[in-house]
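Subject: design request, 84 residues
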């Protein structure tokens, strides 16, 4: 389409947004979920910036996360195709 001597065109673009997970970010997350029930922790994780989906595995088959952050592990998955 041409207007006032210029050319207008449409472009469709897509991309991937990702968050940089630092040790401080992980620690903040751990502090928010420690000692919470599986259901409470999932609700917190679902609302946490940068969390697309979360899986909670409690090793002893329980329903409550440990109250000690040193007993909780955060695993951040990488996105295929991203570097750096």
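Subject: RE: design request

Done. Sequence follows.
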């Amino acid at each position: 389409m041409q207007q006032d001597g210029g050319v207008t065109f449409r472009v469709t673009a897509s991309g991937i947004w990702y968050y940089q997970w630092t040790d401080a970010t992980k620690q903040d997350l751990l502090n928010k979920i420690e000692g919470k029930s599986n259901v409470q922790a999932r609700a917190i994780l679902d609302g946490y910036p940068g969390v697309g989906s979360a899986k909670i595995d409690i090793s002893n088959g329980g329903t409550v996360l440990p109250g000690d952050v040193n007993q909780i592990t955060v695993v951040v998955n990488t996105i295929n195709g991203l570097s750096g």
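Residues 19-84 form one domain.
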